TrEMBL record:
Protein name, as recorded: UDP-glycosyltransferase
Length: 464
């Protein structure tokens, strides 16, 4: 009899890895009945033709967000003390005290953090969150769905959303094995894993060690090292267009060499547009020297600001926008859904541009998969004022310590050096690719094309 796997989507983040790749096809070939247990507004049955079971009840306990916010802050305090650091607290965002409701919640969070920032205190908060969510109608609703459909495993595609807590608890309380995929390279040091499944799937040995370090309640035998489906498309040559087709599709000039500028969200890089402008100035300077260069600007899929518009207009002689093929199915950042077509678009942009310029993003790995360099901007802009976050903070984060050395990316520490560094990359006198590949292996693992297969092998082992 076929085994039934519930692929649980607490939000839209997991779609990219588990609905738009070959993950479903591989699972079916292994004889699994796959049902997407869907907590998102994305219509999986209508759009992709896959079986889905929609979670209609999405009501959290009113106090859950208070305790999950307190959990994160308390855990980060524990990490700072335990590892003798100050960096962990920089992962916190300021709380809002505007309005009675916000003020009450934030003050309650502050009280909990003041009294629970110890290992024992964090355990008590974790238990309280479970108690709150077990008392909800959503928990009972999910339990009912599980009893009716009887899956052999619930595989959660993202452990960060509060929406994941009740469904995972319901499965565990019914004795159904649960697993979760750590979806991003910075999830663990940020204390963002809100669920405690029976098993964890991670990208690499490096990430496994992080998981055991930051989640002392996890045992090594609960962890599967599999890689991530996120980068598989970069190794699929069938997605690549010829240079002529790619250039014609996007109205590019065949004699021009293009540099990619990959935009960031407003939290990571609030002054991102000025770095794009700096690159445009460098390109104009080099074009004066006889280079024939342009910039492809790929915006961050979840950035809806108009902050780049003036720069795009001012430098329209050298910058062309190619927007990601994502689409909104809701209003928040995690309801902007990727598409299969965007995998191909991103792979082609990597393949047909000279290198990428960016602030602190994992695009370094996307480009190194195509043997292309990544330039990281790391200098302050004159527009930096009090209350605006300095991008230099990004490079101090723990996940950047995974770099084999500082040559794993090409850092620009001074705006005056930018044109020289861009020229050196174009003239093939500068590259981060050799060390970047080592960094890729550390973070992503050395089997980037086999992640989906490896995950199914892990699921199989759990179910058996």
């Amino acid at each position: 009899m076929n085994k039934k796997a519930f692929i649980f989507l607490p939000d839209g983040v997991g779609l990219r890895n588990f609905a738009l790749t070959n993950f479903n096809t591989i699972g079916k070939a292994l004889g699994y009945e796959i049902v997407y247990w869907n907590n998102t507004p994305f219509k999986i049955k209508d759009e992709l033709g896959f079986d889905e079971l929609v979670i209609e009840n999405q009501q959290l306990h009113p106090m859950t967000t208070v305790f999950t916010r307190a959990r994160k802050r308390s855990e980060l305090n524990v990490f700072d003390k335990k590892f003798k650091e100050t960096v962990y607290n920089t992962y916190n965002f300021p709380q809002s005290y505007k309005g009675i409701k916000n003020a009450f919640k934030s003050l309650y969070v502050d009280f909990l953090v003041a009294t629970k920032s110890s290992e024992r205190g964090v355990v008590s908060i974790r238990e309280k969150i479970k108690k709150l969510e077990r008392s909800t109608a959503k928990y009972e609703y999910c339990k009912k769905q599980l009893l009716e459909h009887k899956p052999d495993i619930v595989f959660c595609t993202n452990p960060r959303p509060t929406q994941a807590i009740a469904p995972i608890l319901a499965a565990q309380d019914l004795g159904i094995p649960t697993a979760s995929f750590i979806f991003s390279w910075d999830n663990l040091p940020k204390a963002t894993t809100l669920i405690e499944p029976d098993y964890y799937f991670v990208w690499s040995d490096y990430m496994k060690n992080e998981l055991l370090q930051y989640c002392p309640y996890v045992k090594p035998e609960q962890v599967f090292v599999t890689g991530t489906p996120q980068f598989e498309s970069h190794f699929d040559v069938s997605l690549l267009q010829s240079k002529e087709d790619f250039y014609n599709t996007h109205h590019l000039n065949l004699s021009t060499r293009y540099i990619c500028f990959s935009g960031d969200d407003i939290v990571t890089s609030p002054l991102d547009q000025y770095y794009l402008e700096d690159l445009a100035v460098s390109v104009r300077e080099l074009n004066q020297l006889g280079y024939n260069l342009g910039i492809i600007y790929r915006k961050c899929p979840v950035d809806f600001t108009d902050r780049y518009d003036a720069v795009l207009k001012k430098y329209d002689d050298v910058i062309i926008s190619i927007d990601p093929l994502w689409r909104p199915v809701g209003t928040s950042w995690n309801e902007i859904m990727p598409t299969k077509e965007d995998f191909a678009l991103q792979a082609n942009i990597c393949h047909h541009t000279e290198f990428v310029g960016n602030i602190a993003s994992s695009m370094v790995f996307d480009f190194v998969a195509h043997d292309k360099s990544c330039l990281f901007f790391d200098y302050e802009q004159p527009q930096l004022q009090k209350g605006i976050r300095d991008i230099g903070q990004n490079y101090k984060y723990i996940h950047f310590r995974s770099m084999p050395n500082n040559e794993a990316a090409l850092f620009v520490h001074n705006k005056k050096e930018l044109t020289t560094i861009v020229k050196a990359i174009l003239d093939e006198n500068k590259s981060n690719v050799p060390v970047g590949k080592k960094w890729f292996d550390v973070v992503v693992g050395n089997e980037p094309t086999k992640a989906s297969e490896n995950i199914w092998e892990g699921i199989n082992a759990i179910v058996k």
